[in-house]
Design goal:
It is built from eleven helices and six strands. The chain has 331 residues and is an alpha+beta fold. The protein has two domains: 107 residues; 169 residues, NADH Oxidase. The longest helix has 29 residues. The radius of gyration is 23 Å and the shape is globular. It starts with a helix and ends in a 15-residue tail after the last strand. It binds flavin mononucleotide.
Length: 331
C-alpha cells in the first residue's frame, strides 16, 4: 500500500477508537450509578442491591467476626429509608428482599451475643413503614445465607441442566485440599466449547496456585475475609488482537461467555467456584498486569476462584429478580 494511504488509514482508525472511547465516556457520564444516584429509581435499586449483597456476603464468610456488619446494616437501612420516601409509592415491594436480609442478619448476630439493639430499633421502624406502603406484612422467607451439604451440591451438579444451574453458588469457603491439575484441565477443556464471534476463541486463561492465587485475590480487594481460602485462581482474559475496529467490546462478550462456562464446568466437576471482579479502572488493571505478567494486549475479564467444597457449604442467598423486572417482549 502507498505509504501516505497507509498513514491516512491508520489516522482514521485511531480517530475511530477515540470516538468510541468518547461515546462510552458520554454514556458513563449520563448513566453511571455513581452520579445522581437518588434521582433515578433504578440506580437506587441497583445500589441498594449491592449494599444488601455485602451484608449477605459477610454472613457467608467462613467465620464472620462477632458483631460484624453493624455499620453496614445501618447504612443499608438509611438507604432503604430514603428509597421508601422517594420511591415507596412506585415500587415498595422492592424493599422485601433487603428487609429479609436484615432480618437474617439480626437473628444471626443476636445469636452470637453481639449487641445489635440499634439495628433492631431501626429495622422495626422500617418494617412499619414497609407495612404501610405495601399493605402487608413482610413475607417470612429466609434470606442472608443458605446451607447445603457438599454431597447434595455435587449430586445436583450432575443432574439435568436446571439442577446444574440451580445448585451453583459463589463459594467463599473451601476445604483446603488441593484441586487436582487434571480437574482444572478438564474444566478448561469443557469451557473451550464456548461459542465466540466467528469462532476466534480470543480468550486466554492464567492459572495461579497456592500463595500466588492468594496474592492475586488480595490485589483484587473484593474478597476480604476469605482471601486465604482461594488457592486456585484462574484469571480469564481476552486478547484484543482477536477483534477488529467495529467490535470494540467483543472481547468482553466472548470472554464473559467463556468465564460463565468455566464456572459451570468447575461446578459440574464437583468443585466450588466464585467469579471475582476485574471490572476496574485502567490504572489498577495495569498494576495487575505488571505484578502477574499479563500482557498489554489482554483485557482481564474475571478471576475464577475455585477449590474443593467443604462438607457443609454456606453461601449468600443472592436471590434473583422476577423476570418481569428484566425482560421486555418486543413485537
Ligand atoms: C463479574 C463478577 C464479579 C464478582 N466479583 C466478586 C468479588 O469481587 N467478590 C465476591 O465476593 N464476589 C464476587 N462476585 C460473586 C457475586 O457476588 C455472586 O456471583 C452473585 O451474588 C450471585 O450469587 P451466586 O453466584 O451465588 O449465584 C462476582 C460475580 C461476578 C459475576
Amino acid at each position: 500500500m502507498n505509504p501516505i494511504r497507509k498513514i491516512w488509514k491508520r489516522i482514521k482508525l485511531d480517530a475511530g477508537f477515540c470516538h468510541e472511547g468518547l461515546a462510552h465516556a458520554r454514556r458513563l457520564c449520563a448513566h453511571s450509578a455513581s452520579a445522581d444516584t437518588e434521582s433515578d429509581i433504578y440506580k437506587m435499586q441497583y445500589s441498594i442491591l449491592r449494599i444488601n449483597h455485602t451484608l449477605e456476603k459477610g454472613l457467608s464468610m467462613p467465620s464472620p467476626r462477632k458483631g460484624f456488619g453493624i455499620r453496614r446494616s445501618l447504612f443499608l437501612m438509611d438507604r432503604l429509608g430514603l428509597y421508601a420516601r422517594l420511591y415507596g409509592g412506585q415500587d415498595a415491594e422492592f424493599l422485601t428482599y433487603p428487609l429479609q436480609t436484615l432480618a437474617g442478619y439480626i437473628s444471626y448476630t443476636e445469636g452470637t451475643g453481639a449487641d445489635v439493639s440499634e439495628v433492631r430499633r431501626k429495622y422495626e421502624t422500617l418494617l412499619k413503614e414497609y407495612e404501610s406502603l405495601t399493605g402487608h406484612a413482610l413475607p417470612d422467607r429466609p434470606a442472608g445465607t443458605q446451607i447445603s451439604s457438599s454431597k447434595d451440591i455435587r449430586e445436583a451438579a450432575r443432574g439435568d441442566f436446571r439442577s446444574l444451574l440451580e445448585s451453583r453458588h459463589a463459594i467463599r469457603a473451601y476445604s483446603g485440599e488441593e484441586v487436582p491439575e487434571e480437574t482444572i484441565m478438564e474444566a478448561l477443556s469443557l469451557a473451550q466449547l464456548t461459542p465466540s464471534a466467528c469462532n476466534r476463541q480470543g480468550w486466554k486463561t492464567h492459572v495461579f496456585r497456592g500463595e500466588k492465587a492468594v496474592e492475586l485475590v488480595r490485589w483484587q480487594e473484593g474478597c476480604k475475609g476469605f482471601e486465604e481460602q482461594i488457592r486456585t485462581a484462574i484469571l480469564v482474559t481476552a486478547d484484543l488482537r482477536a477483534f477488529l475496529d467495529f467490535e470494540p467490546y467483543q472481547a468482553y462478550v466472548d470472554g464473559g461467555l467463556y468465564a460463565m462456562n468455566l464456572l459451570n464446568a468447575l461446578h459440574y466437576l464437583g468443585l466450588g467456584a466464585i467469579p471475582i471482579s476485574c471490572g476496574f479502572k485502567d490504572a489498577k488493571l495495569n498494576e495487575m498486569r505488571a505484578a502477574f505478567s499479563i500482557p498489554e494486549n489482554e483485557v482481564p475479564i474475571v478471576i475464577v476462584g475455585t477449590g474443593v467444597l467443604p462438607e457443609t457449604v454456606k453461601y449468600a442467598t443472592s436471590r434473583r429478580k422476577d423476570i418481569s423486572k428484566t425482560n421486555t417482549f418486543h413485537e
